[in-house]
Amino acid sequence: MSMATSVMPPWISLLPREELLYLYAAAVAVTAWCAVRALEWAWWRPRRLGRALRSQGLRGTAYRPVAGDTPLMQLLNKEARSRAMPLGRGCHDIVPRAMPLFHRAMQEHGKISFTWFGPVPRVTISKPELVREVLSNKFGHFEKLKFGRLQRMLHNGVGSHEGEKWAKHRRIINPTFHMEKLKRMLPAFATCCTELVERWEGLALAAGDAPCEVDVWPDMQNLTGDVISRAAFGSSYLEGRRIFQLQGEQLELVTLAMSKLHIPGYMLLPTKANRRMKQIAGEIERVLKGIIAKRESAMRAGEATSDDLLGLLLESNMAHCRDDSNAGTGITTDEVIGECKLFYFAGAETTSVLLTWTLILLCMHPEWQDRAREEVLRVLGPDGTPDHDALGRLRVVTMVLYEALRLYTPLTAIHRETYKPMELGGVRYPAGVVLMLPLLCVHHDREVWGADADEFRPERFAEGVSGAAAAPAFFPFGWGPRVCVGQNFAMLEAKMGIAAVLRRFSLQLSPDYTHAPFPVGMLQPQHGAQLRLKSLLDHM
Ligand code: HEM
Predict the structure, then answer these.
(1) CA of 484 relative to ligand 1 center, distance in Å
(2) Helix or strand run (H / E) with residue 524
(3) Are 231 and 308 in contact (CB under 8 A)?
C-alpha cells in the first residue's frame, strides 16, 4: 500500500472515479488559492507598498518576509532593558531606551521613515504639524488600527470604534466627563487619597527612626484603580477592584503576545497564555454583568443615584432608548460592558504612571518638590478635601504634571492606518500603511523644544499649555476629534493625588531605585519606583 492511500480515509476508495477527480481538482484549487493569498500577504503586497514609499523618497529598513522587524525589535528591546539609565545629568534622555527600534530607524533613515510591523509598513511620523494633520483626520482617511481578537481582550469601547458607531458612543460618553459631573466625583477621589496617605503614615510610624521605603508604583496603581472603581461604580467599587487586578494581568499577557511573531490564527492555539487570557476576559465580563444588572434594577426602582460613570452611562442609555425620536441611538448592555472595560484600561494605567513618574521627578528635583509643597500648603492648607476651584489654583503642581507628561508620556505612541490613498506632507501613502505617531519622540525633539529638551524644566509651562512656545508639539492626551475624553478627570485626579502626598510627606529616591523607563502598554518604571518617605506630621 502506498503512503498516499494509507493516509486517506477508507470511504475515498468507494467513490466513483469521476467524483474522485473532482475532489482532487477542488483540493488542488483550494491549495493554490491559499498559496496565492499567502504569497500576496507575505511577499507581493509588502514589496508593492515598500516600492511605493521608496519611490517617493522615504527611507526605511529592508523587508524580511513575514516577521518584518519584529525579531530586531525584540533584540533591541532586550538589550535596552538589560541596561539601567544613569541618574543625574542626561537621565531624562529616555527615547533610545524606551523606543530603541524607532530611535535607530529615525537616526538612520530620517524623522519620517519606515519599519516593518510583520508584513505591514509602519511609517514613523514625528513632525508635530504632520502629527496634528493625521490626528485631526479631516478627510476621515486615517483610521485607528482594526482591533484584533487580542486587543479586544483588553477593551472594546469608544476608543476602538470608527464612523457612526464611534460618534454615537462618544456623544453618550462625553457628558459623563463634563466638569460639573467631575466636581461631584471629587469626594470619591479624596477618599482614595486619604486611605493611601494614612496607610503610608502607618508604615512611616512602624519604621520608627529607620527610613520608610515604599515602591510607590503598585500603590499608585491601586490608587488610580480605586479612584476609577469609585468613580465608575460608586458603591460597587469593591467588586470593581477585582476587575482592575484582572486587567493588569491581562495587559501583561496581551503585550507579550503582541511582541511575538505576527502569525494569523495564533490566538486560536490553546497555549497556556491564550487559555489564561480567555479565562480573564470571561471573569471580567461576569463581574461587570453582575454590577450592571444590580444597578439597572436599582435605577428602575428609583433607588440609585447616577453620579458615578456607570450610572451616567446607563442613564444616557435609558434616556436614548425611551425617546422614540432617538430610537436605536442607545447602547446595549454589551456595549456598556465594553465602555466600562475601557474606563479601567484607559483611566487607571495611564494616570498611575503619570503619578509615579511625577513623584520620581519630584525626588530627582527637590527644589521643585519644595516649591510644589509650599504651594499646596498655601493654597489648600494642611488638611481637608480640596474643592475644584482650589485645585485649579495649583499653578506649580500643574506645571510639574505637564512637564512629567512631556518627558515621561504615558502613551508613548499612537497608531493610525490609511484605508484609502492619502496625501500627507507631500507623500502619497497607499492604503494599508500604518502611521506611527511617536508622542515620546516628539516631546523630546530638540529641534522643537530646544537644546534642553531632555531636561526637567516645568517653567516651560508657566503660562499653561497654550502659553508654551512648543505647545503645538505637546500631545500627551492625543489631539483632534479622538482626543482623550478623560483628560480633565486625569488632571484633577493627579493634582489631588500629588497634593495629598506632598502635604504629608517629604520624598527622596531610595538607594534601591533603578532608573529604567520602558513601555509595557504604558511607559512604566521597569524595576519599580522605590522612594523614601518622611512624614511631615511632626513638623506641622
Ligand atoms: C494621564 C492620563 C491619561 C493619558 C496620558 C491619556 C492619553 C490618551 C490618549 C493619547 C488618547 C488618544 C488615543 C488615540 O488617539 O489613539 C486617549 C483616548 C482616550 N482616553 Fe485617555 N488618557 C488618560 C486618562 C484617561 C482617563 C482617566 C480616562 C477615563 C476615565 C480616559 C479615557 C479615554 C478614552 C475613552 C479615550 C478614547 C477616546 C476616543 O477614541 O474617542 N483617559 N487617552
Answers:
(1) 4
(2) strand 522-525
(3) yes
Contact 239, 339 (CB under 8 A): no
Q: Binning pLDDT at 50, 70 and 90, where does residue 176 land?
A: confident
Ligand 1 pocket test, pick from 353, 484, 485 with the greatest ligand atom count within 8 Å of Cβ, gives: 484
254: pLDDT strictly greater than 60: yes
Distance CA 233, CA 214 (A): 29
Q: Note the ipTM here.
A: 0.99
* Cell numbers for 455: 531636561
CB 114 within 8 A of CB 53: yes
CA distance 366 to 506: 9
Helix (H, G, I), strand (E, B) or coil at 9: coil
On whether 484 is known to bind a ligand per the annotation, the reply is: yes
Cell of 498: 500629588
Mean pLDDT: which of 84-88, 315-319, 394-398, 479-483 is highest?
394-398
Q: Which residues line ligand 1 (CB under 6 A)?
A: 144, 158-159, 170, 342-343, 346-347, 350-351, 354, 410-411, 414, 476-478, 482, 484-486, 489-490
Q: How far apart are CA 173 and CA 481, in angstroms?
A: 14
Instruction: Give the mutation target among 151, 177, 221, 350 for probing the ligand 1 site: most ligand atoms within 8 A of CB.
Output: 350
Question: In this structure, are strands 434-437 and 422-424 parallel, antiparallel, or unpaired?
Answer: unpaired
What is the Å distance from ligand 1's center to 234 Cα? 21
The reported pTM is: 0.90
